[in-house]
Design brief:
The chain is built from 17 helices and 19 strands. By secondary structure, it is an alpha+beta fold.
Length: 479
């Protein structure tokens, strides 16, 4: 049998045997299974950077490699040494994509047109990059100069000495924002109960800050919304395998990392199916219902933005009623997939659990990080929840390094996969939330997470690293 095992797989096998516990080594059936398993786990006894051909073996640990979705089965990855990245060429935009980007540009111009002429002229004169493509947010606070936030910090910094390194630029020369300036934008808008509005048929978000009387605006935040073409969004270039497997996906990220953008992209892909896949399962169009509480996913108007493709969506009458709308989506509209932008409290977490048992998959976003969700007593139920029990002194010394409390996962996670957005070009993926939480709570195990990062000028592949997750420890998660 050993004579028929390729050299690479044999090296992988030897590495795996060194990791197995003794009972598994004594189990002949386990040994035979390892010899015949094509997707052997990762390696440390040889340099994976020397691998030049695409490999179907599992990703190596603690090594950055180039990865792509298997052309014949996009639910699985292939990898090779990262030095081969430079050999790949970037895709060329097709006419449909060019037309789509032209539409996005026109929508950004529509938002900028809401600003007073002198402020718009000041932005065009002082902003060092292209405000249509790089401007992310405009903050207008009474008595303070306007503030700009932008996306590509490194690109802007290369061309302007005045750019602040953290991606923020104050228009000090413009002068302070006035009441008239705020009212010129505020009075022509309608806002939801959470003080969010926008432009009908577009994805921008306009939020207002109330003064002491709770009626007068003293601040506005204009967040620029941009959709991605169907075949070049994050769901296609970094998350395609998760969609092909039909995973329930939780998207976690801090403000500005692109959670809503990613949710919209995932929903659009699911509603259209993966037409390039050889799998009939992946090609199937899903009936996607989006619970769009603030109108940010599909725009504030009654007609959803075209970037949602075949998705359906429900408006929510008030932010406090989102959990009821989540259940209504399932009970009344028979969706395959329910999507929710921003689960923020225990009622919504419980509603997500109820929804997950009655649909093919659920997709949602949460503010923060994986670590902050695990520490949050209300929200961590979506990761299965945490339970604690007191153990005997003997077990405490033998198994828990002296700890008297045993912390464990209370139940199944609502989501099978979690995606943490590090930035708009980099993600970390937990491929099995239940196993991840179990390993994280076990003092004798390590929890692993995969980091994926886009390669500049290339859509065919990305950088991938499987690494130990050490952002939070078992003792930091208080039951």
């Amino acid at each position: 049998m050993l004579n028929r095992v390729p050299l690479l797989d044999l090296l992988l096998l030897l590495n795996q045997l060194s990791r197995l516990p003794l009972p598994d080594l004594l189990n002949l059936h386990s040994l035979i299974s390892l010899l015949s398993l094509p997707n052997l786990l990762s390696i440390s006894i040889f340099d994976p950077l020397l691998v030049r051909d695409w490999s179907n073996a599992a990703l190596p640990l603690n090594v950055t490699v180039q990865a792509r979705f298997n052309p014949s089965n996009p639910a699985r990855l292939q990898w090779r040494g990262s030095s081969a990245v430079t050999e790949l060429a970037a895709d060329i935009d097709d006419p449909e994509e060019a037309e789509f980007r032209g539409q996005v540009r026109a929508e950004v111009e529509d938002l900028l047109a809401l600003l007073p002429d002198d402020l718009r002229d000041c932005i065009e004169d002082e902003f060092p990059g292209d405000p249509i493509n790089e401007l992310d947010e405009i903050s207008l606070d009474l008595g303070m100069p306007p503030r700009l936030r932008y996306l590509d910090v490194s690109a802007l910094a290369n061309g302007a000495d005045a750019v602040v390194p953290d991606g923020v630029m104050d228009l000090d020369d413009f002068g302070p924002v006035t009441h008239d300036m705020l009212y010129s934008i505020f009075n022509s808008r309608s806002f939801s109960s959470d003080r969010r509005g926008g432009i009908d048929g577009q994805l921008h978000r306009i939020s207002w800050i109330a003064g002491r009387d709770n009626k007068t605006p003293v601040g506005l935040t204009l967040r620029i919304g941009r959709a991605a073409p169907l075949h070049s969004g994050l769901a296609t270039v970094l998350l395609r395998d998760l969609l092909a497997r039909g995973e329930s996906i939780l998207v976690v990220g801090r403000p500005g990392t692109g959670k809503t953008h990613t949710l919209r992209d995932i929903c659009a892909r699911l509603s259209e199916g993966d037409k390039t896949s050889s799998s009939s399962f992946a090609r199937r169009r899903r009936n996607v219902m989006i619970v769009d509480t603030s109108g940010e996913v599909g725009g504030p108007g009654d007609v959803a933005h075209p970037s949602l493709h075949r998705c359906r969506r429900m408006h929510v009458p008030a932010r406090s009623l989102q959990h009821e709308s989540m259940l209504e989506a399932v009970q009344n509209h028979t969706p395959d997939v329910v999507a929710v932008d921003e689960i923020s409290n225990g009622r919504e977490a419980q509603a997500a659990r109820s929804v997950s048992t009655r649909v093919f998959a659920i997709v949602a976003t949460v503010h923060g990080s994986l670590a902050s969700v695990l520490r949050n007593r209300e929200l961590r139920d979506i990761f299965g929840g945490i339970t604690a029990s007191t153990v005997s002194d003997q077990r405490s010394m033998l198994e828990l390094d002296g700890r008297k409390e045993l912390v464990a996962r209370a139940g199944d996670a609502v989501f099978t996969v979690a995606v943490e957005l590090v930035s708009r070009t980099e993600v970390r993926i937990v491929h099995n939330v239940n196993a991840f939480v179990d390993d994280l709570l076990d003092l004798k195990k390590e929890a692993w997470i995969e980091r994926r990062k886009l390669v500049d000028g290339c859509r065919d592949a990305f950088e991938s690293t499987v690494e130990v997750y050490d952002d939070v420890r078992s003792e930091d998660i208080v039951a």
